[in-house]
Amino acid sequence: MKRILSGVQPSGNPHLGNYFGAMKNHIEMQNDYESFIFIADYHALTTVKDANKMRESTLHLILDYLALGLDPSKTVFFRQSDIAAHAELKWFFECIIHHGLLDRAHAWKDALEKGKKDPTVGLFTYPVLMAADILLYSPDLVPVGKDQKQHVEIARDIAIKFNNIFGETFKLPEAYIPEESALIKGTDGEKMSKSYGNVIEIFADEQTLKKQVMSIKTDSTALEDPKNPDSCNVFYLYKLFASNEEIHDLSEKYKSGGFGFGDAKKLLLAKILEYFAPYREKRIELEKNLDYINEVLELGAEKAKKVSGELMDQVKERIGYTKKFV
Ligand code: ADP
Ligand code: TRP
User: Fold this and answer.
1) pTM of the complete model
2) Among the four given CATH numbers 3.30.160.20, 1.10.240.10, 3.30.70.20, 1.10.1740.10, the one describing domain 204-284
3) Any bridge partners for residue 191, and if so which?
4) Would you place residue 253 in the very low, low, confident or very high pLDDT band (cuts 50, 70, 90)?
5) Ligand 2 atom 8 nearest Cα
6) Atom of ligand 2 nearest to the CA of 145
7) Ligand 2: which of 65, 148, 158 to mutate, most ligand atoms within 8 Å of CB?
8) Across-strand partners of 39?
9) Which CATH class is domain 3-184+290-319?
């Protein structure tokens, strides 16, 4: 059975981009792959510098994943900070790569250009930690959104370099980015992202969700005039949820005129609420049972430690950190 590994940062409330671009794929793939999914809380430290917020976002993301259907008996579900080997391997990698490899990373260049992110050394070496996350578990595929493709390529480059220097140790991973979920657009038609303030959150309360849906940008075609569904952000998001028949119906309404963007937004809101309703209920149940959450994390950490520990023993042996002198 092929193996997948992926992580999501607990740095804000998951949105439709995270769901369709990553989480939904992770959950579906657990049935056909040996799966490792983790909460990237070490990565989140590049942006979250408040202990309460870190704790809360971590718990929320765990609840979100479990509510959405991640099954800890099928997936090794763990928290990055429970496995110290991630940080340890990052150091080994830092001693074999040149900083030019990281200068070229889009995410770092973006952070510098937009001047939005705090350009710490941690943010600069973020892809090295990500390489360690990936390579410690020897996955065949890394299911992520398109924005993470380059990071997976950097992980490959690092694996090749280590293997060249110390001998074949790491399996070369490949990004898995299905076309239809590669880039989900937000309320302004750009990539949906926490940092752009254009999100629709999956578990926001109804009021917030309504506000987010109502804020979707549309053009100024008058209510009575026919509209082009294919250039409309509301129609685009509706398609993520609706059946072919529903998509066809809405498309006809757009084309015939007399149907406003406000009406389309109401339909979209109803669809989102309906789609996530069962998950919302499950999430409320899970929230009441933190003992279960703690058990899940303990089990995940145990399994992840075993797999990463075995690989780490090999890595150290290759480097010359021999356990026993003979
Ligand atoms: P954000 O950009 O909102 O900070 P993250 O970086 O935490 O999101 O992304 C977590 C996962 O969700 C990654 O695998 C990422 O590729 C995916 N993802 C985030 N936004 C989108 C999007 N708009 N479309 C597709 N995938 C996305
Ligand atoms: N950088 C990823 C993101 O922002 C999260 C992440 C960290 C990750 N480590 C990973 C994803 C390893 C896949 C594999 O979404």
Assistant:
1) 0.94
2) 1.10.240.10
3) 185
4) very high
5) 7
6) 15
7) 148
8) 8, 79
9) alpha beta
